[in-house]
Amino acid sequence: MLPVTYVTRRLLRQSKKGASKPALATLNAILTFDCDESPFGVYNELVASRLGQMVSAPVATGVLTVSGDGQTFAGIEAGSRELVLPDVLDLRLGDIALKYPSEAAALVAFDLWIGNDDRHGNLKASLHTQHIRVFAGFDHAISLLGHEDCAEKLASRLEMLKSGKLLVKFHPFYGHVEPHELSKWVSRITGISDELVREACVFGKPFRSVSLAMQSELAEALVGRKRLLPGIVAAHAQLIVG
Amino acid sequence: MLAGYRLIQFIPNQQFPAPVTVGVVAWTNEETRLRFIGLDVIAGRVDVEVFRRAFGLPVTVEPTVLEWVRWFQDLISSRGRFVENAASALDRLESRSFPFIADQEGEGEIGPKELDAFADDVFQRAVLALPSIRWASLETEAFKCLVGAGLSTANANLTDDAEIVLPETSAGPGLLSFSWFLDQGRRRAGFRVIDFEAEETYVGQQVANVLTTFEVARSREFLRRDQCFVLHGHGLEDYPNYAELFGDIATLIDLTDCIAADKLRTALSNT
């Protein structure tokens, strides 16, 4: 899988010692904060990043940092060398899927699994330069636990994840993915060990407004959902594959 | 009919935002036009070299700049009226900390079929008239001329932004700066670019600087007259004295002449 590259904002200092000539540098990052519209945004971003790395999904990575009232998620800005790429326009989605068939299918499978229906516009891809390949999804703040503001709605969201409901009604790559590529990525997600999924979701203590119980419930929902993923895709093949 | 436009501006350094206008989107209710540095509107080709030179960006940035130009092209070619579709995408640029923004807008009254002329006019005044952009365009044309004459920085004989240190004499140290310098053993040539469309005082400074460089090079017997070249674009006609002055010490190559590269090749073959 193509590695995602990130934009270096400034190269500050390079050491003359060391075989790898280590250098201090700054990278661009987009900070995600918990707020009323996205009360679990930081947790969702962090867990989605961990899960994405687990399956080698083409999603931008990020790290926890501290800013303002506590921990925030810093999504490192994907791009090419010194400049940030524009977000993908709708009218180029077909071309992007043709240039990156495996990556597009990976993003669909991953979003189906984590219940991310906010992919629209949250994608970077280079299209016009054949020898430069950049493809990265970003922003998972309202995936996983979603943005439910009360206990009942959150319970309902977790139940829907567990039950194998589609959740992602619209996706930029619906109708553009190749079935065999999608099947490959669904199999990869299905094959992840249950224990790894639990490790990604459960931190061993409450994290901001996400209790330990919520973390465990999400983990179990995702463990169940990855098993149901082939069935979800099969049941909605006409929408997803076209 | 009413035509609107938005200026496309580039922010070279996000930490010290000082946007520089690099393109124009112009529209009416029926049509939309894009003008951008390096975009050949008729052929549809994009040459990002001028853009790169104007902002001193490394060669590695060219693919990303190309992606951006194509993105703007895609945006204006999307179906529907500009103000209803593409305008909101341009509005979003600022909120996402992108290197481009497009929130400065204006409008003008135009006649039927005048949108191209309107876009060209705004582009000329807002972009091409900027000294840094004009200089980058001139340098790019000059380099194309050198390549057309058979020279290239790919072979080590032609050096970009060359600084030559001559041995110190009683007259003092001799540091010569050239836009490009060709060193092929006994065959040498120094090239300088002059922007005659700049402000008059700046033109005077450039001319004095270039004259000094070539005078020192000749007096130290480092270059002969036929090895000194001044590459220029429009504007020399406004300074007949300078044309005469340079005639004595260098070969003038007018980059707006369609056979400039051939003339340079011929001149170089005689060195």
Describe this protein's structure:
The complex is a heterodimer of chains A (about 240) and B (about 270). Chain A has eight helices and nine strands. With about 240 residues, chain A is of the alpha+beta class. Chain A starts with 7 loop residues before the first strand and ends with a helix. With about 270 residues, chain B is of the alpha+beta class. The chains are: A alpha+beta (about 240), B alpha+beta (about 270). At the A-B interface, strand 6 and strand 7 of A face helix 2 of B.
Strand content of chain B: 25-35%
Q: What helical percentage do the residues of chain B reach?
A: 25-40%
What is the beta-strand fraction of chain A?
15-25%
Order of the strands making up the biggest sheet of chain A: 3-5-4
Calculate the mean pLDDT score of chain A and round it: 90
Sheet having the most strands of chain A? 3 strands, antiparallel
Number of strands of chain A: 9
Tally of helical runs of chain B: 8
Radius of gyration of chain B: 22 Å
How many helices of chain A? The count is 8
Indicate the mean pLDDT of chain B.
Answer: 89
Largest interface: A-B, 21 and 23 residues
Q: Report the strand count of chain B.
A: 9
Task: Please state the overall shape of chain B, judged from the principal axes of the Cα atoms.
Answer: elongated
Structural class of chain B: alpha+beta
Report the C-alpha radius of gyration of chain A, rounded.
Answer: 18 Å
Strand and helix layout:
The complex is a heterodimer of chains A (242) and B (271).
Chain A: E1 8-14, E2 23-27, E3 29-32, H1 41-55, E4 62-67, E5 70-76, E6 79-80, E7 83-84, H2 93-99, H3 101-114, E8 123-125, E9 135-137, H4 151-163, H5 179-190, H6 194-201, H7 212-235, H8 237-240
Antiparallel strand pairs in A: 1-2, 3-5, 4-5, 6-7, 8-9
Chain B: E1 2-10, E2 20-27, E3 32-36, H1 49-54, H2 62-77, H3 86-95, E4 100-109, H4 115-128, H5 131-148, E5 158-169, E6 172-184, E7 187-194, H6 200-219, E8 228-232, H7 240-249, E9 251-254, H8 260-269
Parallel strand pairs in B: 7-8, 8-9
Antiparallel strand pairs in B: 1-2, 1-4, 2-3, 5-6, 6-7
Helix pairs in contact in B: 5-8
